[in-house]
Design goal:
Blueprint lengths: L6 H9 L5 H13 L6 H12 L3 H13 L8 H9 L18 E3 L9 H11 L5 E3 L10 H4 L7 E3 L9 H8 L7 E3 L5 E2 L14 E8 L1 H4 L10 E7 L4 H8 L2 H6 L2 E4 L23 E5 L2 H4 L17 E5 L12 H9 L7 E4 L12 H14 L2 H4 L6 E4 L7
Parallel strand pairs: 1-2, 2-3, 3-4, 4-6, 5-6, 6-7, 7-8, 8-9, 9-10, 10-11, 11-12
């Protein structure tokens, strides 16, 4: 008589099919890489189910599950913090799950955390954290101490932080983060040079500033030594004189390569246009709201005998003035591309600009851009984002 096999054993053997670990890692990576093409929570749920199959599947997928946790759905943040940084008296886990986190985005959180919990969480994920975006409410000056220990950090976003934190305190906390390359400051920041000895991180190349400026100190302000990209977003009263005092700084005049002026600034060009861009000797990339072409004196075209700007890439975004309804004359743009903008080889136009630069004029403008491309050295073309006139897929974020 044949031996009867328990049905649960059959189900178990079918459910936990053994596969080589290398294949399981490949599958887990495929699920993880698919997050860009699906709703963000989807890949997270799939990886959770993947890790629940067996211990072998868990070991193959756990690094992908914790690499960039999605924490903006339901009680996911509570479950995550209870796992990564449980209460002090709870049993300590054998696996340091916090060390698996490399991307931590808390921007979608509002009242989910507290100042102490955010600080404790940073302390638990510090080992391999490369990207951190702070929450609006629960990031405070108390979070700077654990933040200073995140030695692998390359991208830090504080743009939503509501609590005013002195710039000197931020610089002190991040000054030893040798791998930090990009920093976004919040609109609650007061930008001033307080004379402290604390320096910027040595490899910081990209900086976004908001808030208010100590205008009188801006011409001699000490910017990061290797800064090449500067963005203005969420600034208070960034009027003509303030912008000129900032950009006339000797350091920025000679080293700044990329400049972004976002439409979310207040008081821009209230007292008239400015020719300050002509002072930026190394500027190659410029992103501005469409009508600022006039405020920055890029339109109308300069005297044909004058020197063209150094700009190679120009991106035009949604108008700063919501009531700006004037169509920009394509002939004015073409003339400028033949004169003061004669080095522009890439002209990006956001979808929100199509109302002021109609698509019917794009082919004509594109011809002038390609004339510039034909005159551009090959080595410079290789470094450009794109060539010709391009309608961007979406409006650039701040």
């Amino acid at each position: 008589m044949p031996k009867l096999v328990d049905s649960s054993e059959v189900m178990t053997s079918r459910r936990y099919v053994h596969l080589p670990t290398e294949i399981l890692i490949h599958i887990a990576k495929f699920i993880f890489d698919d997050w860009r093409d699906t709703d963000p929570p989807f890949f997270q749920v799939t990886l959770q189910r993947f890790c629940a199959v067996s211990r072998q599947w868990y070991s193959a997928g756990i690094e992908f599950l914790y690499y960039r946790p999605q924490l903006d759905e339901g009680n996911s943040f509570s479950l995550f913090t209870n796992t990564v940084c449980p209460p002090i008296r709870s049993r300590e886990r054998k696996v340091d799950l916090g060390s698996l986190v490399q991307v931590l985005n808390l921007e979608a959180l509002v009242h989910h955390s507290s100042n102490s919990l955010t600080a404790r969480l940073l302390g638990r994920v510090k080992k391999n954290l490369k990207t951190f975006a702070a929450p609006r409410i629960s990031f405070s000056i108390n979070s700077l101490a654990p933040l200073s220990k995140c030695k692998e950090l390359s991208y830090l976003c504080l743009s939503l932080v509501a609590e005013p934190i002195p710039l000197s305190a931020i610089k002190k906390a991040i000054s030893s983060l040798d791998k930090l390359q990009s920093l976004k400051l919040s609109s609650s920041t007061f930008i001033t040079d307080d004379g402290s000895s604390e320096g910027w991180p040595p490899n910081l190349t990209s900086l976004q500033v908001g808030g208010q400026f100590d205008v009188e100190k801006m011409s001699s302000f000490r910017w990061p030594a290797n800064l090449v990209s500067l963005s203005f977003c969420g600034c208070e009263d960034l009027d003509t004189s303030a912008l000129e005092q900032i950009l006339i700084n000797d350091q920025l005049r000679t080293t700044l390569i990329q400049l972004t002026i976002h439409r979310s600034n207040r008081g821009m060009f209230d007292v008239g246009p400015s020719a300050i861009l002509s002072e930026l000797l190394s500027l190659k990339s410029l992103r501005i709201p469409a009508e600022l072409l006039y405020d920055l004196l890029l339109l109308p075209a300069f005297d044909p005998m004058g020197s063209p700007t150094s700009i190679r890439e120009l991106e035009l975004t949604a108008p700063y003035d919501e009531n700006f309804a004037t169509n920009i004359d394509p002939d004015d743009i073409c003339k400028a591309l033949n004169m003061n903008l004669s080095r522009v080889c890439y002209l990006g136009i956001s979808p929100a600009c199509l109302g002021v630069i109609p698509e019917a004029s794009h082919a004509k403008i594109d011809k002038f851009v390609w004339k510039n491309i034909d005159k551009c050295p090959e080595e410079e073309l290789d470094s450009l984002f794109d060539l010709g006139l391009v309608v961007m897929d979406k409006e650039p974020l701040c």
